[in-house]
Specification:
This protein is α+β, with helices and mostly antiparallel strands and 72 residues long. The chain is 25% helix and 28% strand.
Length: 72
C-alpha cells in the first residue's frame, strides 16, 4: 500500500467552519470519481506543528493500492 500525505491550513480570511465544509465536499467528490486503487481518505486536524503560524493544521492521508490512482 502507498499513501499520499499532505499538510495544509486555511487561508487567513477563510473561517474554519467554511474551510472544513469545503474539505468535506472535496473528499466526497474525490471518492465518487476515484479509480479502484483509491482506498479512501482520512483527515486529522492538529494544533501547531511545523507550520507554527497557524493554530490548526490539517493532515490528509489518501491510501492507494497502486500508483495509477495518482495519474487520473
Amino acid at each position: 500500500m502507498l499513501s499520499y500525505v499532505f499538510w495544509h491550513r486555511k487561508a487567513p480570511r477563510t473561517t474554519q467552519e467554511k474551510y472544513e465544509e469545503r474539505l468535506l465536499a472535496f473528499r466526497k467528490n474525490l471518492a465518487s470519481l476515484a479509480p479502484k486503487s483509491f482506498l479512501g481518505s482520512r483527515v486529522q486536524s492538529k494544533g501547531r506543528t511545523v507550520m507554527d503560524d497557524s493554530d490548526t493544521v490539517y493532515e490528509n492521508w489518501y491510501p492507494i493500492s497502486r500508483s495509477e490512482a495518482l495519474i487520473r
